[in-house]
Design goal:
The protein is of the alpha+beta class. It has three helices and five strands; from the N terminus they run E-E-H-E-H-H-E-E. It has one domain: Beta-grasp domain (Ubiquitin-like (UB roll), Roll). A five-stranded mixed β-sheet has the order 2-1-5-3-4. It binds FE2/S2 (inorganic) cluster.
């Protein structure tokens, strides 16, 4: 599935993301280094924060549980906020567009 990433300077990059990997991994494996993802995808650092574009919020779903709590600790939480290590790329997310959140 294709994943479109908007970095902090507004530049857009289209990535061919493997099915079953997380959005965080897809972003990091494709040379976008703004996403620190310090915990490596364990849902404990919140440095993989992205904003899911409005049209995609339904299919992607909202943050729940620990992810929801971690996002609450961010100064930049907004509609569409998700931790990208908790979004798995699947065929139905082909064309997903996310923007990297500002650093906390
Ligand atoms: Fe740490 Fe996502 S990489 S919470």
């Amino acid at each position: 599935p294709k994943l479109i990433v908007v970095d902090r300077s507004g530049d857009e990059k289209t990535i061919d993301a493997g099915e079953g990997i997380s959005v965080m991994e897809a972003i990091r494996d494709n040379g976008v280094d703004e996403l620190l993802a310090l915990c490596g995808g364990c849902c404990s650092c919140a440095t993989c924060h992205v904003f899911v574009e409005e049209d995609w919020r339904g299919p992607v779903g909202a943050a729940i549980g620990d992810e929801d709590d971690l996002l609450d600790s961010s100064d930049h939480r907004a509609a569409g906020s998700r931790l990208s290590c908790q979004i798995m790329m699947t065929a139905n997310l082909d064309g997903l567009r996310v923007a990297i959140a500002p650093e906390d």
